[in-house]
Specification:
The chain has 59 residues and is mainly alpha-helical. Helices cover 71% and strands 0% of the residues. Helix 1 crosses helix 3. It starts with a helix and ends in a 6-residue tail after the last helix.
Length: 59
C-alpha cells in the first residue's frame, strides 16, 4: 500500500514539474508561434496548451 501511494505521489510530482516547466517556457507564447513549434516537433495543434492547463493529478 505504501509503495503504491509513493508511486502515485512521484507521478504527481513529475507531472507538476513538467507542466510548470511548460508554462514557464511557453505560457506567454503567441498562439501562432506555439502552433509552429507543435508542428515542428510533430504534435497536434493545441496539445501544448492542453497539457499546460491540466492539473497535476490528471494524466
Amino acid at each position: 500500500m505504501l509503495g503504491s501511494t509513493q508511486n502515485v505521489l512521484r507521478g504527481w510530482r513529475a507531472r507538476y514539474r513538467n507542466r510548470r516547466a511548460l508554462r514557464n517556457e511557453f505560457g506567454r507564447a503567441s498562439p501562432s508561434w506555439l502552433a509552429h513549434i507543435e508542428q515542428d516537433i510533430g504534435l497536434e495543434p493545441g496539445s501544448l496548451r492542453q497539457e499546460m492547463s491540466k492539473p497535476f493529478w490528471a494524466e
